[in-house]
Specification:
By secondary structure, this protein is an alpha/beta fold. It contains 13 helices and 24 strands. The strands form four sheets. Strands 16, 17, 18, 19, 20, 21, 22, 23 and 24 form a nine-stranded mixed β-sheet that branches. The chain has a seven-stranded mixed β-sheet with strand order 9-8-7-10-11-12-13.
């Protein structure tokens, strides 16, 4: 006999006090810290506790008693469901204030970093339609809210398909999106048309648990040159597929895919898209029969147009492929890179290392101001694009290398290619491997520019760099309006100011977890290995 769970309490007449992290706000009930999503400071609410811990709990709004004077109406009809833009009800100027404060709190409270005065955060010029890339999952069974279920006619089943976003915290639950405000309106028209056509022509949608269903994922990109790219993930099992010795990579490259029934439906869909949307200059597809949606290890096929699009930045053109990383806010990316270039203090005589270079955007962006730039990146396809970007722009002072950073960037590599005067590093969310940090310290560059997207790992890396460097400047840059992320990337620059002492200018920290929770999570290493004494952050 199962034991009945004790109902979680209702917290009445609670005033929301301040913005926290992850799109949540914070309040206090007695000694308990309460984190609440989809509210703003000044809201007075009744809260239903959903998760309780010793020192804090998480709750959702049961009833609004009084709405805050600063609250604004959300721009998106899906607000509160998909979870992508959790700060829509907070005026943009208040979002920027909160992000600036989060940067300060994270470095001082978690990293124990003494900061100079932080430069005011650079806000995004566009707060709508600012993204150049979105991905949409496909599902054979959509997610229903309580309101959706209440509107369903009696006797109607719950097997309706969907193209949309994953709901917060669930990889297998897709909520249908009809009107996303983050990208040009054409992506809404394109996505909705694909859904309608697929339903009308009996295309199956992907079942995450069974790993079957033809239509799996859509990736849409556009650029400031007016070009559009669409990548469609199908799931087609050819003859003899899905067995014990089945090779998904070989299946992705199978030339006989279109001879199957699903293959013929996939072909018809792409022919429809080509005819219906002449704006698409690059239409690609991939057959993904794996257990996840990643396509980095799978061969992509070009169905129509080119297999790339171009982005412009100053007088440079950047070739962006389907697997390429490029900042998803093109206009703000320019401001981000401009700050990184300024932090590098280039005179034309420097050897620059650009770590985690991607398609070589930063490397090529700073190349005209440097003697030579060496870029290193894990993704081989990105390095091919980086070299092509250098060629397109007539840059002859760049070199690019593909491979795992900790394996490529070694003391021997530096001995062969020269000791860097400046290192620019833009690592993934996991930050830099300790071996990479060690090599950077041994190389002793005059300046380090650290571009980052994860406050916890940046703090960890800065604590290691603190052996020889000290943070000097921070310039926050907002890359994602209406989201809690303070920055998609952060930049730090370092200058030698004395024997064994350097400055580090840090930029843009996205805040993903409340500093209260984070502080507990990192307390173990934070006390033993304090973060560098001075940090400047921008996002």
């Amino acid at each position: 006999m199962s034991r009945k769970r004790k109902p979680l309490p209702l917290l009445e007449n609670v005033t929301i006090e301040a913005v926290a992290a992850e799109g949540k706000c914070v309040a206090h009930v007695g000694e308990m810290v309460v984190f609440v999503p989809f509210v703003v400071p000044g809201d007075v609410v009744d809260l239903r506790v959903r998760k309780k811990r010793r020192s804090y709990c998480e709750a959702t709004v049961e009833r609004f008693i009084k709405k805050s004077d600063v609250r604004t109406e959300p721009m998106c009809p899906h607000f509160g469901i998909c979870g992508g833009c959790k700060w829509q009800t907070l005026p943009y100027e208040k979002q920027l204030e909160a992000k600036q404060q989060q940067v300060y709190d994270q470095l001082t409270r978690i990293g124990h970093v003494q900061l100079p005065q932080i430069t005011p955060i650079l806000g995004s010029q566009q707060t709508r339609a600012y993204r150049n890339k979105l991905e949409f999952g496909c599902s054979d069974k959509r997610w229903y809210t309580a309101e959706d279920l209440a509107r369903l006619p009696e006797g109607v089943g719950l097997g309706e398909p969907a193209i949309g976003f994953h709901i917060t915290g669930a990889f297998d639950k897709i909520y249908p999106i009809t009107d996303c405000q983050l990208m040009d309106p054409l992506q809404n028209e394109l996505r909705n048309d694909i859904f309608d056509w697929a339903v009308a022509h009996d295309l199956s949608f992907f079942d995450t648990h069974k790993r079957t269903g033809l239509l799996r994922n859509l990736m849409v990109r556009n650029s400031n040159t007016g070009e559009w790219m669409l990548v469609i993930q199908f799931c087609i099992f050819p003859e003899g597929g899905a067995g014990d010795h089945y090779d998904p990579v070989a299946a992705a490259a199978d030339d006989k895919l279109f001879e199957t029934e699903d293959g013929r439906k996939a072909l018809a869909l792409m022919e429809h898209i080509t005819e219906r949307f002449p704006q698409i200059s690059s239409l690609l597809y991939v057959n993904n029969t794996k257990g996840n949606d990643t396509i980095g290890d799978l061969p992509l096929r070009n169905f129509h147009g080119t297999d790339f699009i171009y982005e412009l930045m100053e007088d440079l053109r950047f070739k962006v492929g389907p697997k390429s990383f490029y900042q998803t806010n093109t206009e703000q990316a320019y401001h981000l890179y401009e700050v990184a270039r300024r932090f590098a203090c280039l005179t034309g005589e420097e050897l620059v290392y650009d770590l985690y270079t991607g398609t070589g955007t930063i490397a090529n962006f700073v190349a005209k101001g440097a003697r030579e730039v060496i870029g290193i990146e894990y993704v081989p396809e990105a390095i091919v694009d980086a070299k092509e970007n250098a060629r397109i722009n007539g840059l002859e002072n760049t070199k690019f290398f593909a491979g795992d950073m900790k394996d490529i960037l070694t003391d021997d590599f530096i001995a062969r290619h020269g000791h860097p005067d400046v290192i620019i590093t833009d690592p993934p969310r996991a930050g830099m491997h300790p071996d990479v940090v060690s090599v950077i310290l041994n190389a002793a560059p005059q300046r380090i520019v650290y571009v980052s997207c994860n406050p916890a790992t940046q703090a960890r890396d800065l604590s290691l760099l603190d052996a020889d460097y000290e943070v000097a400047q921070v310039q926050p840059v907002d890359m994602f309006p209406h989201t809690p992320h303070v920055a998609e990337r952060r930049a730090a620059s370092q200058k030698i100011i004395g024997p064994g002492l350097r400055e580090i200018d840090c930029r843009g920290l996205p805040q993903e977890v409340s500093w209260l929770v984070q502080e507990q999570a990192v307390a173990g290493w934070g006390k033993a290995s304090p973060i560098p004494a001075k940090v400047i952050i921008s996002h």
